[in-house]
Amino acid sequence: MSTRGASLRQTQWQPHVLALNAPPPLRPWLTAGGSLTARLKAHSQTFRVQCLHQRVARCLSDEAAAIGLRRPGRVWEREVLLRCDNTPVVFAHTVVPMSATAADWPLFSALGERSLGTTLFGDPRVRRGVLEFARLRQEHPLARRAAAALGLEDEDQLREARPQERILYARRCLYRRRQGTLLVTEVFLPSVLDLKQQRSHNE
């Protein structure tokens, strides 16, 4: 693999959102604590999780160390679109090491189109790590998967995207429960900036 190809697959995750130079309106979404699901519900009339797939896959190069693997290997992978009033606003990607057991994450395999965030924040045994932040160029695997989920698989469409849509901003967080780890990456789509507060979100 070329050096450039490798760099596209390994994003530099930053400990502080200011390192991204993200648009100011997006920073509260990136840094907000608590449940993203609750925050999205508070900014929409209807909220839905669209499950794209949940399967065995190979983790990305920049995920292996975070979940305790020496090198990229097989994981349980879940990818969804979070929709507010039927508009996709977040592409979420979750990986769980194959070593995790049903006792570690008892509800993960049966989530379907239920929110993972609701499960994580509703379980007192889940320990949340610190947030990390990254800019994803359109060539990054997660940016490409997000584009594919939105129906932008065609290269010409990607090239013709507006400049602000060519880089996506993401955050990730490691969760622990018992002996298991689970890494959630949330890629914020440009449409999230169109959301307006609907009601108080103290869920």
Question: Could you describe the 3D structure shown?
Answer:
By secondary structure, the chain is an alpha+beta fold. The protein has one domain (3-194): 3-Layer(aba) Sandwich (Chorismate lyase), CATH 3.40.1410. Helix content is 21%, strand content 31%. It contains 7 helices and 7 strands; from the N terminus they run αααβββαββαααββ. Strands 1, 2, 3, 4, 5, 6 and 7 form a 7-stranded antiparallel β-sheet that branches. Strand 6 and strand 7 (180-188) form a beta hairpin. The longest helix has 9 residues, at 141-149. The chain is globular. The termini are far apart. Mean pLDDT is 85; it is low at 1-8 and 153-158.
List keywords for this structure.
single chain, 203 residues, Chorismate lyase
Which value, in Å, is the CA radius of gyration?
A: 16 Å
What can be said about the biggest beta sheet?
7 strands, antiparallel
Query: How many helical stretches?
Result: 7
The proportion of residues in beta strands is 25-35%
Question: What's the structural domain tally?
Answer: 1
Distance between the termini: 46 Å
Q: What is the overall silhouette?
A: globular
Q: Average pLDDT, to the nearest integer? A: 85
Share in helix = 10-25%
CATH superfamily annotation: Chorismate lyase-like
Write the layout of secondary structure elements.
Elements: H1 3-9, H2 27-31, H3 36-41, E1 47-58, E2 74-84, E3 87-97, H4 116-121, E4 127-128, E5 132-137, H5 141-149, H6 155-160, H7 163-166, E6 167-177, E7 180-188
Antiparallel strand pairs: 1-2, 2-3, 3-7, 4-6, 5-6, 6-7
